[in-house]
Amino acid sequence: MAPTAVSQPDRAAGAPTADAAAPQANGNGAAPAPAPATGARSDAGAAPVSAGAAQPNGGGGAASPASTASAVPAAGTRAGGEGATAATVAPAASSQPDRAAGAPTAETAAPQANGNGAALAPATAPEPAPAPAPEPATGDADAAPPASATPAGPTRRLFVSRVVAGAAAAAAVGTVGYGTYGVLRGPKVKRVTVPLAKLPRAAHGYRIAVVSDVHLGPFLGRGFAQKVVDTINATQPDLIAVVGDLVDGSVKDLGPAAAPLAQLRARHGSYFVTGNHEYFSGAGQWVEEVRRLGINPLENARREMPYFDLAGVNDVAGEDEGQGPDFAKALGDRDTARACVLLAHQPVQIHDAVEHGVDLQLSGHTHGGQLWPGNLIASGANPTLAGLDRYGDTQLYVSRGAGAWGPPTRVGAPSDITVIELASRQA
């Protein structure tokens, strides 16, 4: 129990004075109360506690050794009688050993008084800020995976991308498969009516079966040639025009495959002109072979048919062998009052045909594009990709062809054999 200032005994030699050890007075001039043991009452006349003596705490245990100032009562302690209580302070540790050298002095350890004379709690080190509490889980804690965990199995986006890729692959395979089936089953018949101003009335309805780009070779052999022949004969044409690219190989290798061509039947015969692939395979040999099969080759030549002139020119690929197209030889001395039908493999030959007054040119070569991106290439390299077109007074018809070159498949450009039905404007 801390004694009051009025009953302080004479201090021993060398002991600190009460003035030196007393805590600083507050703003009202009253000194803050000392730190008595918890639950102790202020008793005037009690003996002072010497420096370094341990004070008993409220529970009967020894209090932490106080500094010299902690034993001196404050001058401003209430002296209202025996019942006056001293302000309480935070208790020290119950069994703290004597302060070692360098421990805080009384001035730093003494509590400061507030404005009302009551002692404040001793200054302590600031407590560290508490760690932020984790946010509560919105769902079932057992079901929700940690934020860093990778979800098991593919994500929805990956699943969708795989489905789309699989569907695209299946569509591509299906499209190519159907295109290949379309080629192997043989060409379909296409019918086109072409009016000619110079055609006599008696020739109205004249039918010319046009076949191009058969491309007999490793994939399309004798069986395919037979399908082409049967399809043409079924149309019962008046004339058959084979406009180039019949084969992709030598006579030695493909002679047996081309043998069914000997079965072609038409009222006014069958005629043939070379394409660029004949010059890759030996054009001279094939000209002789088709003649042996009963087909009439037109090498820069012309035939006068009953109602019109039929002419044929070599392909432009023959120029490297000195056998290129010669329009003057084929058309130079003809009667221009008669209608003229020209067989020329490539559509680009239409410009020469216009200059020579041709009424109708029949061509192939483009395959109608066959498949992408061939359609883009063929469209840029030819004036007409497929079908009937007009250039001045000359009409041009381009067949998509009966076979296929390269892969035996077609996409968006089905093979055909076209029956051109001539119409007289006098009819």
Sheet with most strands: 6 strands, mixed
CA distance, first residue to last residue: 144 Å
Q: Mean of residue pLDDT?
A: 75
Assign an overall shape.
Answer: globular
Helical residue percent? 10-25%
Give the low-pLDDT segments: 1-125
Q: Which series of helices and strands comes N to C?
A: HHHEEHEHEHHEEEHEHEHEEE
* Computed Rg: 58 Å
Read across the widest sheet, the strand sequence of neighbours is 1-12-2-3-4-5
Strand fraction: 5-15%
> How many helical stretches?
10
Structural class, judged by helices and strands? alpha/beta
Count the E strands.
Answer: 12
Structure report:
- By secondary structure, the protein is of the alpha/beta class.
- It contains ten helices and twelve strands.
- It has helices at 18-21, 106-109, 156-184, 222-234, 251-258, 276-281, 283-292, 327-331, 350-355, 374-381; strands at residues 188-196, 207-211, 239-243, 270-273, 296-297, 301-304, 309-312, 340-343, 360-363, 387-391, 394-398, 416-424.
- The chain has a six-stranded mixed sheet with strand order 1-12-2-3-4-5, with helices on one face. A six-stranded mixed sheet has the order 6-7-8-9-11-10.
